[in-house]
Amino acid sequence: MVLAPPPSRCSPRPPSTSPAPASGSAAEQKFDGHRTILFTPAGPGGRLLLQTRRGSLVQDRFADLVAAAEQLPEGLVLDGSSSSGTPRPGGRLSFEALQRRAAARGRTATALAAKSPAFFIAFDVLQQDGTELLTRPYHERRRILADLFDTHQLSAPWTL
Fold first, then answer.
1. Which position among 30, 105, 143, 152 bears the catalytic label?
2. For the packed helices 95-103 and 106-115, what is the interaxial angle rounded to 10 degrees?
3. Is-catalytic flag, 30?
4. What's the whole-model pTM score?
5. What distance in Å separates the CA atoms of residue 1 and residue 6, rounded to the nearest whole number?
6. Which residue from 5, 56, 74, 153 has the fewest beta carbons nearer than 10 Å?
7. Which residue from 115, 122, 114 is spatially nearest to 69, judged by alpha carbons?
8. CA–CA separation, 126 vs 143, rounded Å?
């Protein structure tokens, strides 16, 4: 089965207590960003899609991420967080800049991309090579995600 927007998935929620290391639980740091699912084209002529947690498609607001996605393989679905920040070394993520980017379109979106580039912080791989991975344990999907970053030598705007 090939995933298509909107896939069903769990919403993030804070744990009531810190999980015990042997419990099999996993926790990720929460960054200032928007929960986003990234779909690379499944084949030639397809287009990259960025879907928000509420199901809206926002790739027109993040043309810099769309352009950078050329380094990602086809048939990939990543779950993560879109963020925005300053391009200078040591720059910081800015939720305010991200919200401006999320609302912008056309030339305004292009101008904001130059001023506050987008980043995609990946924390799960839901599909690889057109094969759904949702039934696999998280620790296995996380290993696949880390291997993807290593194999394709992914760097900014992609973050693991």
1. 30
2. 160
3. yes
4. 0.79
5. 14
6. 153
7. 122
8. 12
CB-based contact 59:27 (threshold 8 Å)? no
What's the number of CA atoms in the CB half-sphere (13 Å) around residue 119? Answer: 22
Q: Nearest-CA neighbor of 37 among 25, 46, 49, 21?
A: 49
DSSP 57: B
Rounded Cα distance, 132 and 1, in Å? 6
What's the DSSP call for residue 11? Answer: P
- 46, 50, 47, 18: which is closest to 34 by C-alpha? 50
At position 19, the amino acid (one-letter code) is P
CB 160 within 8 Å of CB 146:
yes
Instruction: Per residue of the chain (160 residues), give pLDDT as tens.
Output: 466 665 655 455 555 555 555 556 666 666 667 789 999 998 888 899 999 888 889 888 888 898 999 889 999 999 999 888 765 556 677 777 778 888 788 888 888 888 888 889 999 999 999 899 999 999 999 999 999 999 999 988 998 8
Closest CA to 31 of 87, 125, 73, 94: 94
* Strand 158-159 to 118-128 pairing: parallel
